[in-house]
Amino acid sequence: MVRAARQSARTSVWLEGKERRGGRGGGQPSGLDRDRIVDVTVRLLDAEGLAKFSMRRLAAELNVTAMSVYWYVDTKDDLLELALDAAFGELTLPEADADDDWRDQLRALARGYRGLLVRHAWLSPLIGTYVNIGPNSLAFSRLVQHIIRKTGLPAHGLVAAISAVFQFVYGFGTIEGHFIARSAAFGMTPDDYFQHSMSTVTQAPEAADLVQDAAELMAARGGDTVEEMWERDFEFALDLLVAGIEAMVERAGHE
Fold first, then answer.
1. Cα–Cα dist 81/133, whole Å
2. 123-173: pLDDT as tens digits
3. Three-state secondary structure call for residue 29
């Protein structure tokens, strides 16, 4: 998980009871509630991206005035925080007290987190902006800590292990999600966009040696599609991280 930047000028929607408000009182628009506003926000962010999102655009999608939305949220930032946590609610979390092996649980959480970042390309900048203390985000964080404690790592290495796994997933899922979004923006499939990009790079003489080295690495990597290549890379990298945790646990046992 990526730590949010400190934002001294802005509080969180999850503080001061702001997240529980259903409306400001009498006069709010009929047929509108916060859950519907958040659902439509997520849908718009998926379809159009973070840069194009505005309260005015949201109001038009809801067929209300922009001021109507402000009956339910104070600011655009509050709404984006709510959307962020709503997305985290999509994750399927195993039971914390389950007897499953920590390796299986860690892999499942890592895959789920990657899928979330890919489905919602707008999530990654928000994760690095807000404090992420909504109920779904906290449930995810608590479970991550619980699973990492089951590894047997010494206490001083637990936070580093969480960072190694989930900052890797954050980076991998962010790049993958943005690549898919960029492909779609050009009206191409990821495979077509990849081939187009490689063809463009190949034409640059100063990149000839890099292209040659990359071609050899990709041939060894295998995979007929971009999706297959990503899958192979992700799973192998995840295996490396799990093996690294196991090695550090063993090392600690001999100290």
1. 9
2. 999 998 998 999 999 999 999 999 999 999 999 999 999 999 999 999 999
3. coil
Q: Specify whether the CB–CB gap between 126 and 87 falls below 8 A.
A: no
Q: Mapping DSSP to helix (H, G, I), strand (E, B) and coil, where does residue 87 land?
A: helix
Structural domain that includes position 84: 18-88
Shared domain for 219 and 117, answered yes or no, is yes
Tokens, residue 213: 């080295």
Same domain, 107 and 226: yes
For 191-233, how does the pLDDT look when each residue is reduced to its tens digit (9 = 90+)? 898 888 777 777 777 777 777 777 777 777 777 899 999 999 9
Domain count, the chain: 2
What CATH number should be reported for the domain holding residue 46?
1.10.10.60
Q: Are residues 181 and 131 in the same domain?
A: yes
CATH number, domain containing residue 183: 1.10.357.10
Length of the chain: 255
The whole-model pTM stands at 0.86
Give 178-186 contacts, CB < 8 A, sequence gap 24+.
Answer: 178/121, 178/124, 179/226, 180/118, 180/121, 181/49, 181/121
Residue 11 domain-assigned (yes or no): no
Per residue in 50-83, pLDDT (tens digit) is: 999 999 999 999 999 989 999 999 999 999 999 9
